[in-house]
Design goal:
Blueprint lengths: L2 H36 L6 H12 L7 H29 L8 E3 L8 E5 L5 H10 L4 E5 L2 H9 L5 E8 L3 E2 L1 H9 L3 E9 L3 E4 L10 E5 H6 L1 H7 L2 E5 L2 H11 L4 E5 L1 H6 L3 E4 L9 E8 L3 E3 L4 E7 L6 H11 L4 E8 L7 E8 L5 H13 L2 E8 L6
Helix pairs in contact: 1-3, 2-3, 3-12, 11-12
């Protein structure tokens, strides 16, 4: 048999598969209607596992490759079937019950904002960019203190760094947002312009030790290595600048922003010290009330999945099915649970969009845990 004849037979089989697929999806619609009437969940893991074992047993020959292949095929068919059911159910009933308060502009007047660090911190600069320099604000020592301030209603908003364009995510802030029952309501991207600051009259050749936040040290590693400096991480860049002023030691310097030189009466010893010149940090505005702007175009969620093959793949397929673009996905170990991970996912959309609700509902049905962290406006999504 020549190749053309083989291909003709494959085409015939493919048409039969398509016809059978359409019939199966029609039955899926009937299943969804039944589940709408009875209130049953779409995802029945035990039923699907039993079904997969049954179709594997239909393979006539003792062929492990064929068994694996038919299992993968039916996993895909059932996954598509579930997503279609989620969509049909979404058209019939609301499945994301949330007390969201939708507003045109996030309330900023007469609000108190908390940031981590001391005067001159990048978090303070991000806060000023978002709320203006006249906002009522105060500083705390740690990011956890900022989240506690919200919990205790000592502040209305907190500004937290979440990701740097060169050094990656700020893991502690991700985990704190997942831990606390707060909500991301806004985003601000701040260009990072690191400089080396020291006591007035200090020369670069005098410096032996550099202080800064560990992210800033990473972002300026080439400059540090080139000059052979020792380095010591501190909680933030502004605290490092303050230490230089308080210690009064000319062989110490700090990597910080230009504002700290003015605030702490220091001298800029070296400019342009970052490894990459296009360096920015993304901050999020976190609050207690679930208030989102109507123009919100980015959503952040975190999920925990069953620890088995394909669970992440099937969760993410809900975004593909609903035509949603992911902008970020990171994994962090779950505290106290060895080798288990929590996934943080950012994607484009608004919780009022039907396709977004379908995707979120699908993941919610299949994940061990799903938490919507926030829906907010992001200039990076434009």
């Amino acid at each position: 048999m020549d190749l053309n004849e083989i291909r003709k037979q494959i085409d015939v089989i493919d048409r039969e598969i398509v016809e059978l697929y359409e019939k199966r999806m029609h039955l899926t619609t009937q299943v969804a209607e039944y589940k709408i009437e009875t209130g049953k969940n779409v995802y029945d893991r035990e039923r699907e596992l039993s079904k997969l074992e049954a179709v594997e047993s239909l393979i006539k020959n003792d062929d492990n490759d064929a068994r694996h292949g038919i299992r993968e095929l039916f996993e895909q068919i059932m996954s598509i079937s579930r997503k279609k059911q989620y969509k049909l159910i979404g058209e019939k009933r609301a499945y994301i019950k949330s007390p969201c308060n939708w507003v045109d502009v996030l309330p900023k007047n007469n609000k108190t904002i908390v940031f981590q660090g001391v005067d001159g911190a990048y978090s303070q600069a991000a806060m000023f960019k978002y709320f203006g320099k006249d906002c009522n604000n105060y500083a705390v020592s740690t990011w956890r203190d900022a989240m506690e301030a919200l919990k205790l209603k000592k502040a209305d908003y907190a500004v937290l760094p979440i990701e740097n364009s060169t050094a990656g995510e700020v893991e502690e802030c991700f985990d704190l947002i997942a831990e606390y029952d707060h909500h991301i309501m806004g985003e601000v991207v701040l260009p990072i312009d690191h400089v080396l600051v020291g006591l007035k009259g200090t020369k670069l050749s005098d410096v032996k030790t550099i202080y800064s936040h560990h992210q800033a040290l990473m972002q300026c590693s080439e400059f540090i290595d080139k000059n052979g400096f020792d380095y010591i991480p501190l909680k933030n860049t502004a605290l490092a600048a303050k230490k230089i002023k308080d210690d009064g030691n000319p062989d110490q310097a700090a990597i910080a922003n230009r504002l700290t030189a003015e605030i702490y009466d220091l001298e800029i010893l070296q400019e342009d010290i970052t490894n990459l010149k296009n360096n920015s940090t993304r901050f999020v505005v976190v609050g207690v009330d679930e208030t989102y702007e109507n123009k919100a175009n980015k959503i952040s969620i975190c999920i925990e999945l069953v620890h088995e093959s394909g669970s992440l793949y099937h969760a993410l397929s809900n975004f593909i099915f609903n035509g949603i673009n992911l902008t970020q996905i990171v994994s962090h170990p779950i505290p106290g649970r060895n080798w288990e991970y929590r996934f943080f996912i950012d994607f484009e959309g608004n919780l009022k969009d039907a396709n977004v609700r379908n995707a979120v509902y699908g993941i919610m049905e299949e994940a061990k845990m799903l938490k919507v962290l926030g829906n907010y406006y992001s200039e990076t999504n434009i």
